[in-house]
Amino acid sequence: MIVAACVEPPKLARLRGAVGDTHRLHVALDWDHANSIVRRQPVDVLVVDPAFGSSNGPRTDAIRSLRAEFRSVPFVVYSVLAAQTLQPIIELGREGMEQLVLFGVDDDPRHLRRILERQPGVALAEQLMTRLQPRLRSLPADVARAIERVVHTPAAFKGVPDLAAAANVSRRTIYRECERAQLASPREVIAGARVLRAYAFLRESDYAIEDVAEHLRFSSPHHLTKTMRWACGMTTARARDRVAPDDFVNMLSARLMPAAPATATTDAAP
């Protein structure tokens, strides 16, 4: 699990205890830095504090702006319960950020960790990364890290040029490296990461299919359905209702690790 935190120091100390040594924590220095973290690092969940970086009391504008830009990243609001925080908490709830942890009330490390680990896509991204590791190990480190970012934060990538830029290589090189490692094409890797997160959101949240398609950069719900058929042979609605998470990861892994090397000129993903 990879957590990004925009919280005041007392909350950060408790968050570090919850994350422990088995997960990763990116600590934002300010809201601009938080934006940069999500763009440049893999992130499974973003923990935000209305009091973070504000000398004039709790605010929600920076959080709402971040939420609008990264709709596919789960947000957890971490706040004190006080008169001055009630209105900001209500405002964020109206924006769809309904997961709230109260400082000093329900932030026991074990409880806080459970909240973070159950965010949509966290466990599935970890499972997929475990499956891909044997082939990622044969890639240059920068390319492997870029693919990890795609799996954990798929909506941060518009397409193959973004993946190539994250790996510090050319578009042609990223295709060649994936072929050499016997991975699916870069386009298919991005499609697989997006559809995995879409499946997780549809299974674990109340999002409509149309909202999930928009948040994860699918051009339309129809495009999401085409990609879902490519991943598991079913429509989006059927996959959500009939395919167990472990089975979905198994089928997607088979798509992303074909038995024969993928070619650099052919993409099967929609």
Kindly summarize this structure in a few lines.
With 270 residues, the chain is of the alpha/beta class. Helices cover 57% and strands 8% of the residues. The protein folds into two domains: 2-117, Rossmann fold, CATH 3.40.50.2300; 122-256, Homeodomain-like (Arc Repressor Mutant, subunit A).
Topology:
Elements: E1 2-6, H1 9-19, E2 24-27, H2 31-40, E3 45-48, H3 61-69, E4 75-79, H4 83-94, E5 100-102, H5 109-117, H6 122-136, H7 141-152, H8 160-167, H9 171-180, H10 186-204, H11 209-215, H12 221-232, H13 236-242, H14 245-256
Parallel strand pairs: 1-2, 1-3, 3-4, 4-5
Structure description:
With about 270 residues, the protein is an alpha/beta fold. The chain has helices at about 10-20, 30-40, 60-70, 85-95, 110-115, 120-135, 140-150, 160-165, 170-180, 185-205, 210-215, 220-230, 235-240, 245-255; strands spanning about 1-5, 25, 45-50, 75-80, 100. The protein is built from 14 helices and five strands. The chain has a five-stranded parallel beta sheet with strand order 2-1-3-4-5, sandwiched between helices.
